[in-house]
Design a protein that fits this description.
Number of strands: 10
Helix content: 10-25%
Structural class: alpha+beta
Order of helices and strands: EEEEEEEEEHEH
Strand order of the largest sheet: 2-5-6-9-7
CATH superfamily: Inorganic pyrophosphatase
Distance between the termini: 14 Å
Largest sheet: 5 strands, mixed, barrel
CATH architecture: Alpha-Beta Complex
CATH topology: Inorganic Pyrophosphatase
Length: 168
Amino acid sequence: MSDTNGSKKTVRVIVETPKGRRNKFKFDPDQKCFILGAVLPAGLAFPYDFGFLPNTLADDGDPLDVLLLMDESAFPGCVVESRLIGVLEIEQAKDGKTYRNDRIIAVAEKAHDYRDLRSLKDLNENLLKEIEQFFEANSRIKGKEFKLLAARGPKRARRLVEKSRRKQ
């Protein structure tokens, strides 16, 4: 994590899929470009920009996933300086194999509408529930079982990021 101005810790999130899109893009490190990874069914779209933290390795073998709250959607490849506000600890299963697939929740540092958010506790309860439901629906569409283990705050999110960077 970079320390950009005094005690304010931020991370750089790379946006893969913009808010409101059904097309899920994924960065391909071998080809060094974004590819179309999936298309969500009609009626399901990403509620916020979705991306990853570079130089991290999550338990599912990919970089850590991040749902990024900001005022307007960005574009695939956009780097957004962000602060962590929490993590959804998620367990998924497919074909009898269970694994963790946690989702970091962050806020763009330059956001206006979300600038006062410091923790998941600051989110409207309904909004947090809708985010959870999006991830659950997306998992089920892919034939994966979904279990929300916990919604944790920024300290837990920072520990997860530090742990995933040590795996690199």
